[in-house]
């Protein structure tokens, strides 16, 4: 699970970086700098890119409990406690904020999972969330059963 979480984080960073660059490109081509014939593609403000990445993680985990990277690798974020309730807007905000703050000094927030017996990261412990495998029901199973029932009713031998 630890390596999957790290891979998910880097995958989501890449996706959010691409989305920001695409948005930045559209913004620059729509509003070129005065006195320049070609738009400046040198990059946006690091502050706005960090803000975009923060909002990316916060909103997607709040709405769906997953980011696109988490969906691809089959994990989701829920509240830590009995049951599997999705984390709320404020808990997800604190988790995302702590993810950024605790990982700034050499990734200590994620390295904490190596010392934790449960494998939880520092920001998951502090925000009272946990990451689980996303167990989706096999959607093909009911279809297989209905086909089998249909064939067993129509295929009667004399």
TrEMBL record:
Pfam families registered for this protein in UniProt: RDD
RDD domain ranges (all copies): 51-127
Origin: domain of life: Bacteria
Subcellular location: Cell membrane
Stretches of the chain forming a coiled coil according to its record: none
Transmembrane stretches, start-end: 7-26, 46-75, 96-115
One GO location term (cellular component): plasma membrane
Keywords: Cell membrane, Membrane, Transmembrane, Transmembrane helix
Membrane topology: Multi-pass membrane protein
Principal location: membrane
InterPro entries, per the entry: Pra-immunoreactive, RDD
Name the UniProt record assigns to this protein: RDD domain-containing protein
